[in-house]
Amino acid sequence: MFNYCYASIVIISIFVYISHAINIMFELTEEHKMIRQAARDFAQKELKPGVIERDNKQQFPEEQVKILGELGFLGMMVDPKYNGSGLDTISYVLVMEELSKIDASASVIVSVNNSLVCYGLQEFGTEQQKETYLKPLASGKKLGAFCLSEPEAGSDATFQQTKAEDKGDYYLLNGTKNWITNGNSASTYIVIAQTNPEDGHHGINALIVEKGMEGFSVGPKEDKLGIRGSDTHSLQFNDVKVPKENRIGKDGFGFKFAMKTLEGGRIGIAAQALGIASGAYELALAYSKERKTFGKPISDHQAIQFKLADMATEIEAARLLVHKAAWLKDQGLPYTKLAAMAKLFASDVAMKTTVEAIQIHGGYGYVKEYHVERLMRDAKITQIYEGTSEIQRIVIAREILK
Ligand code: CAA
Q: How confident is the model at residue 16, as a pLDDT?
């Protein structure tokens, strides 16, 4: 009798747990739907009209970033007491997907500010750092940048050549950072640098550097293949004095800080890739119903139907991975493996889908007016930044072989 009752309780608990999980995984709450709709409306109204021109001119979406701040999209997961929106990671990936359907240049600005800067400060910063730096970043009054990559340290991130020499009450910062998103538009920079080379990656620190500090200069803007509206620059540090209180975490925490921060960043970029893919798919689907060949819409041809079916299936699979990674993070469960899987898979789907979207558009897909060629150029970076696809495979393999 006892065993029977016990078994029943266990079965019911498992059922409740699973249904709870399924509910979170597959059914968005009304709040989530409203946030997604707000992002969709913003993207249609504010991002779409000038997106081709900004891409042509490599123009930073300054006005749009201001509105993103007002909407609370630049500090989405930050506690309201630090001017954030206090939302979950699911809300964040929904917003990232909607923005990226239209303008991946704008969405990378959102991703870096949320995942790589605000998250790191909220999670590991001191109270004073949160007051001084997190508050204006979360409200969108200022933008942040995350500075890890160097001319000779991309994938091999422990090989930091930027030096932060310990001078007592300050660090003397010297070196160069490369490929920095928000490189010129940011005011607050989290810079990863080596303090004690003899300790290898345990000698690395993360420092908060402000624009305007003596010896800090921004190099020319990179002329990129895609995400051309985002400003990517190299940065130079020549004897920059960074106060000790600007170090994040204890001495030598910098590399772990970068790795932990990038884990969440990879969910954001996976959502960006998902958005690029679904944006291209939606355009291709609509076009296939309008364009006629051999006397009927091309969507009536099986050759096109099969392409659309593959695109829709792969996008759905990518969305499930992205949402699961976000959900794990929200539950406080480990998400290293799922974040890497989501980014690896979604970025490949973005590349494949955008190429097929151009194919469906034929010659029109090859010209700027139809948007899909830009989405293809934007898709490529999702296989490279915040850890290349090869790095994601390393992370996944290490996790499954633990
Ligand atoms: N969380 C916490 N700690 C972690 C970690 C994680 N996810 N991953 C690694 N670490 C720790 C390890 O435990 C280890 O610490 P201990 O020695 O104390 O145990 C330390 O970090 C070094 O780890 P590894 O020995 O695994 O280091 P590795 O040299 O083999 O490299 C790597 C690991 C995963 C390949 C890493 O170098 C990496 O992620 N490279 C890619 C860097 C990257 O993503 N760059 C993106 C730039 S930012 C960007 O693109 C932003 C933008 O502008 C959009």
A: 44
